[in-house]
Each structure stands twice: as structure tokens, then as C-alpha cells.
């Protein structure tokens, strides 16, 4: 179908949860040109059937689309995820109903890799803590020209272990090599993805040798809770855990105990097993656990890239040539 014909066709398209794309706002005008676009910042489960009624295309991020919802949406033909993961979609039910499901991968590679080192730097250099002492007058009152609130160590010469060596893991490896770090990874396809400067090792070696262990594997039944007590005990007491991947990779109660007991030194987390988390989350309130609210993906450029790719997915579907199809 030509771009003109695509533009002439105005299927009802509903965005169910746009809030995360609006901080600051992302331009949806390209979608408005090719569809009859309805945008909702949040959609509760009981609101979904009415809002999505008569929709041919749904654009969702974390909204759950189960078999029960799909049965109520006979006009639905395509679900476009503004995300890489698609575990919130019942793929079997979508297939049964002949609904195409498309995602976007690779849009946040640079942003997430950057956030890995932001967390590492925040834990290692304690920039904010030093800044606060300056603002509180400590530097002005100090006898010496310099002081530290905690030991600072270089990344140079340290070992970073990368669990999962996909796009993001590889980008983390590139940055680590630029810092002069020794890079280890555990990966299902070490020969296929052999990379200069990266040593592939088994998981136990990764745990034992890493000064920084960063998680980038997709969550599966096999690795759920893989960061648990017996594996934390294999790590160096000086080690730092970084998780910008999936919260479910970590047994959070075991991590709390490990951080409290000095089994490992610190953790920097951008994801938790439940999001938003409860106010009494076991990892809240620990001085050696830095937590950010799932923002590693959210660089302005990454979100712009995400919307651009979603628009391409919608256009491709309208041409009858769907792309990035997971089903």
C-alpha cells in the first residue's frame, strides 16, 4: 500500500498507557496523520474494553492484554508494543484471534548502557554525597584542600561481569573496555558472538571474579531469582551488583540480607520485581542500595526512537507488510 493510501486509511488506534512517553512529551503527530488516534495516559483493566472498543490497532506498553480482553475486541487486528518485552500479551490467544503483535527492540541500548555506568559511578564516586557536604559548608570549614566521605576506586583494571550479551550487554562491554576494565560475560552463544576484549566464562566464574556484576538477560523460568543467597555468597565481598534488566532476576529478600551482612558491598537497581513497588519493599532504606524508578530506558532520544519505530510498525501493518513481528 502506498504512503498516500496509508494516509487515506484511518483505522481507530488506541494508545492505552502513554504516560511514560510524556516525560517530557514525545511527538505523536506522525501517528495522528495515519490513524484515528486516541491517547490515554493510563488505562485500568476495567476501562480497557470500552476504550479499545472498535479499535483495529492497540499501542500498549505495560497494559495487560489477556484472552478475556481479546474476546471482547473482535475488530482488533494489531497490537504494537512500545517496548521490547511482550510478556503482558497473551500470545496464544492473540494467535487464535489472528491478531498481529509487534514490538520494538534496540531503541534503548545506548540509554540503558549509560545508566549502568551512572549507577556504578554514583555508588563508586559518591558525587551527590560529596556535593551535599560542600553545600553544607564542610569544604569551607575544612583544614585541607580535599577530603572524601568514602573511599573512591577507579574502574580501570577492575573486572565487570555481564550476564547476558545481547545488544545492551555488548554496549556495556564496549564502554567497560574504554574504561580499561577486564570484561567477562556468560552467554549462550560465545562462539557466534565472540568479541575482542571480552572473555566468555561460566556463571560461577562470572560470580566469583566480577568486581561489578551487571544483569542484561531476559527473564525466563530458568533464571528467575538467579541472584539468590547461594550465588550471592560466591561473589566478592567488595562486589557491586547492577540490575537494569529485569527485577525478577533477583531474589530481593536474599539481596537485602547480603547487603546487610556485607556478603557484597552494594547494589544499584533500576528494576524491581513489582513496579510500582510497595512502600515496605525489602530493599528500601539500605544505605548501600541505590534504586532508580525504571528510568534506564527513558532518555529523550531513546523514547523518540521508540515512537519512530512504533510509527514504522503501524505503517508496515497498514501496508500489509508487518515488521518486528513477535507473533
Identify the notable features of this structure and list them briefly.
single chain, 327 residues, alpha/beta, Rossmann fold, 2 domains, 7-stranded parallel sheet, 5-stranded parallel sheet
Structure notes:
With 327 residues, this protein is an alpha/beta fold. The protein has two domains: 124 residues, 3-Layer(aba) Sandwich (Rossmann fold); 183 residues, NAD(P)-binding Rossmann-like Domain (Rossmann fold, 3-Layer(aba) Sandwich). The protein is built from 13 helices and twelve strands. A seven-stranded parallel sheet has the order 8-7-6-9-10-11-12, sandwiched between helices. Strands 2-1-3-4-5 form a five-stranded parallel sheet. Strand 6, helix 9 and strand 7 form a beta-alpha-beta unit. Helix 6 packs across helix 9.
How would you spell out the order of helices and strands?
A: HEHEHEHEHEHHHEHEEHEHEHEEH
Q: What overall form do the CA principal axes indicate?
A: globular
Give the C-alpha Rg. 23 Å
Largest sheet: 7 strands, parallel
Helix content: 25-40%
Beta-strand content estimate: 5-15%
| Mean pLDDT across every amino acid position | 93
Strand ordering within the main sheet: 8-7-6-9-10-11-12
Number of helical regions: 13
Amino acid at each position: 500500500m502506498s504512503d498516500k493510501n496509508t494516509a487515506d486509511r484511518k483505522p481507530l488506534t488506541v494508545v492505552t498507557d502513554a504516560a511514560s512517553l510524556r516525560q517530557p512529551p514525545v511527538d505523536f503527530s506522525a501517528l495522528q496523520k495515519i490513524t484515528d488516534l486516541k491517547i490515554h495516559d493510563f488505562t485500568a483493566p476495567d476501562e480497557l474494553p470500552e476504550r479499545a472498543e472498535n479499535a483495529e490497532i492497540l499501542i500498549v506498553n505495560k497494559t495487560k492484554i489477556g484472552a478475556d480482553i481479546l474476546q471482547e475486541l473482535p475488530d482488533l487486528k494489531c497490537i504494537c508494543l512500545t517496548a521490547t518485552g511482550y510478556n503482558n500479551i497473551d500470545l496464544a490467544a492473540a494467535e487464535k484471534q489472528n491478531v498481529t503483535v509487534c514490538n520494538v527492540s534496540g531503541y534503548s541500548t545506548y540509554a540503558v548502557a549509560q545508566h549502568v555506568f551512572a549507577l556504578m559511578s554514583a555508588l563508586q564516586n559518591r558525587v551527590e554525597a560529596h556535593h551535599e557536604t560542600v553545600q553544607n559548608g564542610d569544604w569551607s570549614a575544612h583544614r585541607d584542600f580535599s577530603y572524601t566521605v568514602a573511599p573512591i576506586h577507579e574502574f580501570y583494571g577492575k573486572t565487570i561481569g555481564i550476564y547476558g550479551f545481547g545488544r545492551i550487554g555488548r554496549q556495556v562491554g564496549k564502554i567497560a573496555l574504554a574504561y580499561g576494565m577486564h570484561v567477562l560475560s556468560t552467554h549462550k552463544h560465545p562462539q557466534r558472538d565472540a568479541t575482542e576484549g571480552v572473555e566468555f566464562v561460566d556463571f560461577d566464574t562470572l560470580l566469583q571474579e566480577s568486581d561489578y556484576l551487571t544483569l542484561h538477560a531476559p527473564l525466563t523460568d530458568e533464571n528467575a531469582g538467579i541472584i539468590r543467597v547461594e550465588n550471592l555468597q560466591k561473589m566478592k565481598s567488595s562486589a557491586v551488583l547492577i540490575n537494569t534488566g529485569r527485577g525478577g532476576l533477583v531474589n530481593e529478600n536474599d539481596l537485602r540480607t547480603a547487603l546487610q551482612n556485607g556478603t557484597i558491598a552494594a547494589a544499584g537497581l533500576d528494576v524491581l520485581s513489582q513496579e510500582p513497588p510497595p512502600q515496605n519493599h525489602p530493599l528500601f532504606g539500605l544505605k548501600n542500595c541505590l534504586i532508580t524508578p525504571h528510568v534506564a530506558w527513558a532518555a529523550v532520544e531513546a523514547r523518540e526512537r521508540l515512537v519512530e519505530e512504533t510509527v514504522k510498525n503501524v505503517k508496515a501493518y497498514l501496508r500489509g507488510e508487518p515488521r518486528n513481528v513477535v507473533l
